[in-house]
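Q: What structure does this chain adopt?
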Amino acid sequence: MKKAFSLIELMVVIAIIAILAAIALPLYQQFTCKAQAAESMNALKDTKAAWAGFRTAYEFDDTNAFNASDAQNSVNIELPERNWDYTFANTGSDVVNVTVSATSGTNLKDCVQGESFNFIIQYNESQRSIEFGVSGSSDTSLWKNVPVGG
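A:
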């Protein structure tokens, strides 16, 4: 009666674990990068209703420049600023461009450090709705470029 594992059985188990680790580790790293990148995008998407009120008050007028704190105070939202910098700019009538970039020296993974994208908020007059888009993504594996309303 055998009371122990043979060397070949142990080697097979170790080989299986090594193969699984070789597949799982890169997938996990990619998943954590995408999850960290999604933090800022999800925060901006969650503010859709608030932007309608902001549009009513400010008309997204291209002569009214404003910064992140003005926008957050006016819209009454809180964006996750621990890891992200937000720069708001009016790029035309009824269009706001939010440039989002990873803050250096944070706990973001290296794959997200230094990356950025433009989040476009546009009022659609005919539909009377707020539409979003993404452009200028520095890494399309993290943020897909999506046309406004797309």
